[in-house]
Amino acid sequence: MGMIGQHLLNGLMQGTIYGLVAMGFTIFFGVMNVIKFSHGDVLTLGAFGGLVAVWAANALGLSVPLQFIVALCVAMALTAVVGAGISHFLIMPLRNAPPLNMLLMTMMVGTAIREAIRLFFPNGTNPQRFPELLPAGGFNIGPSFFRTDAIILIIAGAASIGAVYWIINHSKFGLAMRAVAEDTETARVMGINFGRIIPLTFALGSITAGFAGMIYALYYSEINYSMGLLLAVIGFTAAIVGGLGNIWGAIIGGYLFAGLQTFVVAAMPSMSDYKNVFAFVLIIVLITWRPTGLLAERGSERV
Amino acid sequence: MTPTSRTLARGPVWPLFVAVAFAAVALTALVLIENQKLLGAALAITAAVCFCAARFGGVAATEVAASENPWLLRGLLTLASLAVIFVLRDDNFGLLMLATVLIYATICLGLTVQMGYAGLTNFAAAAFAGTGGYTAAMLGQQGGLPDALVLVCGGLVAVFIGSLLILPVLRTRGHYGALTTMAFGVMFNVFLDANDFFGGPQGLKLPGINLFGWDFTNDIHIFGLVLSSYVNYVILTGILTALAMIFVGLLDRSWVGVWFDVVRLDETAASVFGLKIAYWKVLAFTLGNFLAGLMGAVYAKMTGFIAPANFTFGDSLVMVSIVILGGIGNRWGVLPAALIVVLLPEKLQFIQEYRLIFYAVLVIAILTMRPDGLVARRVRKLHTEASA
């Protein structure tokens, strides 16, 4: 029975990461109608940026909490700049192209980032150990053991989801963003600076990826160049299952996917290698049942 | 794509000869030259000639000549292929690369039917090819079945696995549709990696092809010449590519091709005109998967070895890239695109390690600067004869 708490915590942790990634997908889709598949690799980039920052801060002799703050800031700043750059130089010029071209383009941007990390990061082919910056240890509730850092990370992840939700729904920038998403032409007529909102939106979405990357790195204490690919596929899946463009759908989708994986691991430990197979099969079945996601997009086809 | 028009004046035939001869010489040179500087020069010359031909109407003239003399084109291509094979007769590595290019091109022809004609997104082409390859490997272990049947079974099993995906593919569209195949592609790999029955990450070994007593592992002795055993594979893949090319061409020129176009461009209009959208989508999906499975089986037999790492999601992406690079929906564009994507990284040693980043940058450049691909698909002219 002691394992149940463990599985629960693990599932919550993964769900938070998936939800954060899915939220990025859904923000990009809501505003620009694009799937930015390089999202997962931007996440990897954030984690590696954080790692370099920790090394640098360590060399400068900063204390551990300061190292943590520096790493977090660097990861988020790096992903924000890269996300805005990708949107400005690669996605905007192609925004009238067929969706397939856009999807392929962003997949290739992701491949370029992934390969660049593998080739140009020192010893990039091998997994890198990420230092433990959060307090170690934990506590027992009944027979279950809870890691302190995991609790902190889950709370931080949930808080960041809440923060992004607040920005989108209650800030002036969020209002402008939703206006652009609703109707670009009208938004521009109303004096919204389209050319600034788009990169900022992509920066916001990418910051969530940077944050998720740091959570991943701190929780698993290990990062590698290809971790973003599976996270992107899972995040995209979660966003789709929730219904693209719907923030809550993305978060539900993220926790649902993590729940499916955890269920397989918990119920059939011998089949844990197949957890992604089961999860994907269920997702395919789910998408067949609800072809536009659980919280479906509204709107009918006009002839 | 224009049907032979009797009312228009016939263009000169010579551009066709020049084009085929040039393609053959360029191909042979690219395969044979080892010296990196010479290779770079050859590539530059090829690119320059292609650019000039496109700029000064050479390509257009060739297209006219080709569409007016389809049998001459086929004959010339056969002759040129035989000449290339003859020159490369004892270059094992070069022949293996050529066969690989042909296999990729044929799989991408299937993708062209799916994505270019019927508008279905398929991000699992490599998984379907892998299905065919694993079928060949499993049947090879059992033994008893002639290889011709084994290859066809590879295609059929891919079709069967694909048919499990038909419902989700039919019900979803756009990005949601991309997800189903993507999930399947990733799942295929995770499953094989975890499964011991199919050899796990180490994969399986399988013997070469033996078609009706024609043993592919032996060198060919003909007219006192010795041809490498890989010539067998180049001939087989060449024949299969040619058949697929002709078949896809006929499909495109027939009413079926028009219906595919209507289904892709406007489903609502298609259903208003009484087309059964589901029927045509299933047909395109099935055809594409059959080609992928068949060629996957040939590939596995040729390399004598199959492992999950050969059929990753990344490989599916490479195949989609070939289709986009060549010009989506244009079956001729697939050949140069497959050549660039498969052959170039093998030949240019300095990009071996950087091959994926090379693909990525290449595709990004093509998509930003030439979104219709190298050879854009022509708009169909349905009424040339009626209006002329």
TrEMBL record, chain A:
Gene Ontology process terms (BP): D-alanine transmembrane transport; L-alanine transport; L-isoleucine import across plasma membrane
Topology versus the membrane: Multi-pass membrane protein
Keywords recorded for this protein, A-Z: Amino-acid transport, Cell inner membrane, Cell membrane, Membrane, Transmembrane, Transmembrane helix, Transport
GO molecular function: L-isoleucine transmembrane transporter activity; L-leucine transmembrane transporter activity; L-phenylalanine transmembrane transporter activity; L-valine transmembrane transporter activity
Protein name as it appears in the record: ABC transporter permease
Species this chain originates from: Tardiphaga robiniae
Superkingdom per UniProt: Bacteria
InterPro entries in UniProt: ABC_transp_permease (IPR001851), BCAA_transport_permease (IPR052157)
From TrEMBL, chain B:
InterPro entries: ABC_transp_permease, LivM-like
GO molecular function, one term: branched-chain amino acid transmembrane transporter activity
Keyword set includes Nucleotide-binding: no
Pfam families, per the entry: BPD_transp_2 (PF02653)
TM segment ranges: 12-33, 38-59, 71-88, 95-117, 123-141, 148-170, 176-192, 230-251, 277-299, 320-344, 356-375
Domain of life: Bacteria
tRNA processing keyword on record: no
Keywords attached to this entry: Cell membrane, Membrane, Transmembrane, Transmembrane helix
Membrane topology qualifier: Multi-pass membrane protein
GO CC field: plasma membrane
Compartmental location: Cell membrane
Name of this chain's protein: Branched-chain amino acid ABC transporter permease
